[in-house]
Write a structure and sequence with these properties.
The chain is α+β, with helices and mostly antiparallel strands. It contains 8 helices and 21 strands. The protein folds into 2 domains: 225 residues, 3-Layer(aba) Sandwich (Rossmann fold), CATH 3.40.50; 120 residues, Beta Barrel (OB fold (Dihydrolipoamide Acetyltransferase, E2P)), CATH 2.40.50. Helix content is 24%, strand content 35%. Strand 4 and strand 5 form a beta hairpin. Helix 2 packs parallel to helix 4 and helix 4 packs parallel to helix 5. It is globular, with a radius of gyration of 24 Å.
Length: 364
Amino acid sequence: MEVVFQGVYKRYGQTTAVHDLNLTIESGALHFLLGPSGCGKTTTLRMLAGLESVTEGKLFFDGKDVTEQPAVERGIGMVFQNYALWPHMTVYKNIEYGLKLRKLPSAEIKRRIDEVMDITRLTQYRERLPGQLSGGQQQRVALARALAIRPNVLLLDEPLSNLDAKLRMEMRDNILRIHKQTGITTLYVTHDQREALSMGTKVSVMHAGHLIQTDVPRTLYKHPKTAFIAGFIGETNLIDGTIESWESGQGTIQTALGRLHSTQGAQKFQAGDKVSVSLRPEAILVDWKAAGTGSNFIKAKIEHLTYLGESEQFSLKAQDGTSLKVNFYHAPEHSFQDGDELGCTIAADDVLVLPPQLEMGPGT
């Protein structure tokens, strides 16, 4: 099922929660809607489900206008953040409930329940009550209940936010496996960038009610179109700068860190343009002897070292006072301490030049 938002707005009085949303969710995709709290992503999901009306614009399922269609007729399966399970019903009865409302034959109900229990690996828990299940098991019951109705579109609203870190990892794998098995068009709403990057076929980033960029995860991380996305998707160091020279996608930028050379411009720039420069922490290389020179060499002092096992994070202060974060993977043994001076270099391909940050408001 292909889903298309065409010029969709959602207003609450004088407040616009979603601005001119134009988005296509491809048939069979696991599409993520990502953004900070109040950006309009849950409102968008609820409009798709028919739980909120569309103020302006159109919503299409496989080319059919469903903007005014009641929620019950849209064939939507939904998994809520709190799972919304009946506490007095067994796993089997929770899944059965929606099928009985649809007045399906008993044999068909049993066949569907057995099928989704197998997919979600819940067969051994069929007679348990929700209170006798772990958080991950309850989440799978909610997912099984949504799948049992054979939805046209599956909606997941922050489904892993109540789980601990280990269970979240486990459930990511479960959701990916189940999506591959069923092939159902799925819209997954989250503020967790790791979920989106590790699971999504495509990711749409929203901010203050606006859709900023839709892309595959790797492109979104490597080639963000705005400073907001560069800062929201993973960690980055954002430095204000002014274009000194620019031609054919490369040039020099004057920054507080000095002159930086880049071959990664997000658009065409001219001399004198104000820009934001994104330097990913993992792209900055530590020059242990601080002996380097050149346009992309930076001297800095260590403010704090954070050891994370597989990596080490250096919080640095450059000579002009600019703070920098550097992530060093597989760091060699060293004796650096807070206050020590070191040097950093960054390749021109890793100096991403973006339009200056725009203030879009706090969202909704």
